[in-house]
Design brief:
With 322 residues, the protein is mainly beta. It has one helix and 19 strands.
């Protein structure tokens, strides 16, 4: 029995690899080459039952300017730098359902930082709606439901706010995800992904003292993070059986965050900051040893924005399938 179960697991893993990496594989073409996946865009395909995917990320973030309401960049007095570590873990529950867990930590390289601190965590369910034929051009389509767990510190901070990493908000995010692939006339493979995300209205979060929203030391009130919507478009172009070029575009739009503080008997409400948006580009390069392990290196940088920060984030990730 154990041998039979192992054989079925490896067969399911091979089928998932073909479906995830080869939505279009015509008879006159070889099998699709392996892909690691872009820096941000997740795989819309559900994992086979019992299969794990672990992909640790190491990043270096630098933010030295912010965009105003007219999209003009203004340099800050002191650049913010930090090392970041993210660990996305995926597990196949059924042929159509996967569970994702993302934990993160960071070390801010600025005075007043408390060293390495945990950030917020995310739990996500992915349900695959379509199971296309590998010999057809029909895409993989899935939906996701994600919940942010405010495990990072966001209140009772130092005056510099350097030791805060969390959002403090239990955001619920809905997603629609799709992927398909093509053979180009030059015999190179192209895989494209498109994702749309939007957040459900976040609940109020109790906040005391200094926080990520620049509240004073005697503050005792609540905060509601504004809704967000984002689009992620990516393409992977295979140069040969191992090397892949990646281009990715992320657009995020967010509404104002609200702050409430009781002053005598009358509540005072003010916006922590106006709404805005950002456009981020993320070029990268992949090297895939096989369908089970691959490495991606690239950088995210803010091309433009409105009432948002300008940042550059080089990063490296190792994708492993078990």
């Amino acid at each position: 029995m154990p041998v039979s179960r192992n054989r079925r697991s490896w067969t399911a893993l091979l089928v998932w690899t073909l479906l995830a990496n080869a939505p279009l594989c015509a008879d006159d073409h070889p099998a699709f080459p392996p892909f690691t996946g872009p820096l941000d865009a997740l795989n819309p395909s559900a994992l086979p039952p019992g299969v794990w995917v672990i992909e640790p990320y190491l990043s270096w973030n630098r933010s030295d300017a912010s965009f105003d309401a007219d999209r003009h960049a203004h340099h800050t007095r002191m650049a913010q730098r930090q090392w970041g570590l993210a660990l996305p873990i995926q597990y196949g529950i059924t042929r159509r359902l996967s569970l994702h867990l993302i934990v993160a930590a960071a070390d801010r390289q600025i005075p007043g930082s408390g060293g390495i601190r945990a950030g917020d965590s995310t739990v996500r369910l992915l349900y695959q709606l379509t199971r296309p034929d590998p010999h057809s051009a029909s895409p993989v389509i899935s939906v996701t439901l994600a919940q942010t767990i405010p495990s990072g510190r966001y209140q009772h901070l130092q005056a510099s706010e350097a030791d805060g990493l969390g959002s403090g908000s239990r955001n619920t995010v809905l997603g629609l995800n799709t992927q398909t692939g093509f053979w180009l006339p030059n015999q190179h493979a192209l895989r494209v992904r498109a994702h749309l995300y939007w957040t459900v209205r976040a609940p109020w979060t109790r906040v005391q003292g200094h926080s990520l929203w620049s509240t004073p030391a005697d503050f005792d009130g609540r905060v509601r993070v504004g809704r967000q919507a984002s689009v992620d478009l990516s393409a992977e172009y295979s140069l040969d059986g191992r090397w892949v070029l990646v281009g990715e575009l992320l657009y995020n739009r967010f509404l104002p965050t609200r702050i409430d503080q009781d002053v005598t008997a009358q509540p005072r409400r003010s916006a922590a900051g106006p709404g805005g948006d950002s456009l981020v580009l993320a070029p990268a390069v992949e090297y895939n040893w096989n369908a089970w392990i691959g490495l991606i290196a690239g950088a995210e940088f803010t091309a433009t924005g409105r009432n948002s920060s300008r940042r550059v984030t080089p990063q490296l990730a190792l994708n492993m399938v078990f």
